[in-house]
Amino acid sequence: MTRTVYVNGVYMPEDKATVSIFDRGFLFADGVYEVTSVLDGKLIDFEGHALRLGRSLSELDMQSPIEMEDLLKVHRELVKTNSIEEGLIYLQITRGVASDRDFVYPSKDTPPTIVLFTQNKPGLADSPLAKVGIKVISISDQRWGRRDIKTVQLLYPSMGKMMAKAAGCDDAWMVENGTVTEGTSNNAYIVKGGKIVTRHLSNEILHGITRSAVLRFAREAQMEVEERAFTIKEAQDADEAFFTSASAFVMPVVEVDGRSIGIGTPGPVATRLREIYLEESRKVAV
Ligand code: PDD
């Protein structure tokens, strides 16, 4: 089945969808994005993603081409047309098509480009990987300084994934000034003596929507949470580790730089948080 995608107000088959070579997203990575998961044909944490999108746009002085309510309608329409039960919706907005290549932003009346497409992922919630956990390596964080803005500049995270693969691992945790910032496309956590530790919010990391929900559920379940930076050594000495993201929910991490965490299997805190997150998020999905 050909996917139906959304480009600048129009639903069309994916093979008909095109964007100009002068698009600022293509030439300057001048664009922002969101990834929202779909479970039972419904959107998980939609409001959080829409709010963060608004913030990313405003931090870059970029206009939104769409109202929040219409954005929800487009998401829902794509889920329906493409019969997505479990999967992801990718959304990207760029500063639009300038008349030529120029570092200076085009005039404010240049319409932004908006693109949405679905990714069908049956079995997303019941991931076999979550049952065994993943292995990470550490790499130095060489991204720009405004990681709180969800831009499409993903070359370094992509390189990080390739470094992890070359080392026989699944992902990389990035380290800056001796502490872990985040994973290539996720927020990082350790658990020690029952306490969940994850980096505090700042410009150094993306303010994960899944992070915010998971920390809320953890606190509601009387689990202790500490928001502070941690080192790779601490991660290796921890009882458990895990990461969160819209595409993987809560994912146990069982090895860091070749050292097993705990007994090398997904720990009870990560496993429980994954269950709670999936259960609670499904209840309020839209
Ligand atoms: N990535 N940190 C980074 C650098 C990310 O790219 C992501 C998300 C997260 C987690 O954020 P959230 O919980 O809102 O998904 C943290 C998405 C899933 C991606 O690029 O595919």
Distance between the termini: 25 Å
Structural class by secondary-structure content? alpha+beta
Based on CA atoms alone, the radius of gyration comes out at 19 Å
What's the number of helices?
Answer: 8
CATH homologous superfamily of the largest domain - what is it?
D-amino Acid Aminotransferase, subunit A, domain 2
**Structural domains: how many:** 2
**CATH architectural category of the largest domain:** Alpha-Beta Barrel
Helical fraction: 25-40%
Q: Kindly state the mean pLDDT as a whole number?
A: 97
Given this structure, which CATH class of the largest domain is correct?
Alpha Beta
Q: Please indicate the percent range of residues in DSSP E strands (runs of 2 or more).
A: 25-35%
CATH topology of the largest domain: D-amino Acid Aminotransferase, Chain A, domain 2
Number of strands: 15
Task: List the topology elements.
Layout: E1 4-7, E2 10-13, H1 24-28, E3 31-39, E4 42-43, H2 46-59, H3 68-81, E5 87-94, E6 113-120, H4 128-132, E7 134-140, H5 155-166, E8 171-176, E9 179-183, E10 187-192, E11 195-198, H6 209-220, E12 224-227, H7 232-237, E13 240-245, E14 249-256, E15 259-260, H8 268-283
Parallel strand pairs: 7-8, 7-14, 11-12
Antiparallel strand pairs: 1-2, 1-6, 3-4, 3-5, 5-6, 8-9, 10-11, 10-13, 13-14, 14-15
Helix pairs in contact: 6-8
Bound molecules: N-(5'-phosphopyridoxyl)-D-alanine.
Residues 35, 182, 185-187, 206, 208-211, 244-247 line the site of N-(5'-phosphopyridoxyl)-D-alanine.
